[in-house]
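seq as requested:
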Amino acid sequence: MLKTNVETFLGCEAGFNEARIVLYGAPFDSTTSYRPGTRFASKTMRAESYGLETYSPYQDLDLEDTAIFDSGDLELCFGDTEKALADIEERASIILDAGKLPFLIGGEHLVSLGAIRAAFKKYPDLHILHFDAHTDLRQEYLGAELSHASVIRRAWDLVGDNKIWQFGIRSGMREEFLWAKEHTNLHKFTLEKLPLALKALQGKPVYFTIDLDVMDPSVFPGTGTPEAGGVTFMELMEAAIAGCGLNVVGCDVVELSPPYDQSGASTAVALKILREMLLKLEEPFIKGPALI
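struct tokens:
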């Protein structure tokens, strides 16, 4: 059984046994290709979460009514990428084997691969819903097949063709876009075609991964590889809530890099996305205030 974390995310104080969702942080950014710093995201988000309210006026739901356990950050080896991924996979497997939903806070996007591996072992028919600015479909980056630039390609190695839905993509090599036409469901620039995925994924086990750089850098500058032309906060929030209405068996938010936004605005944006996702995932179990 996992032990209680000393500092928890706002409103996530349930014990492990009673929780339905388990948060865990993966402070790892060793394959970052441009600006490192995402290793600080989970710790910063946890500390800054107390600037939020537990109540969401968007959904009329409150974290105080949820059962979420914050298991804290993993201590990951920065010199051995595969070992770090194995540790992430092990934590996700512990959570899944206990019948709970693992929710990962990155870290660079490669950390998602460890969680996806664990989910795929339990759910062989796993599908992936992916929001991002970048394709992340390279076979390798500078000779390394384990990279945040190749994480979705490595996920494809597991799940295969037509099980990955990608949205918001506006950056990548020509070869990646051509490859995606044959192997994934890639939708460029926006989240507008999300209803297609929501319909196709009904009833299927889904791993939902959000690279926060899907947002425009005018909204979210605190990230390692900012890419102009992204979506707004409201567009992402509404799409994230919709995605969490699927049969989500694991999910994550990644690529916040707090050092690149000293104002804290990017962290605040990331926190609201996280809060709304948690609330939507918990919605079926939340009871509203008693009527008098």
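The chain has a mean pLDDT of 95.
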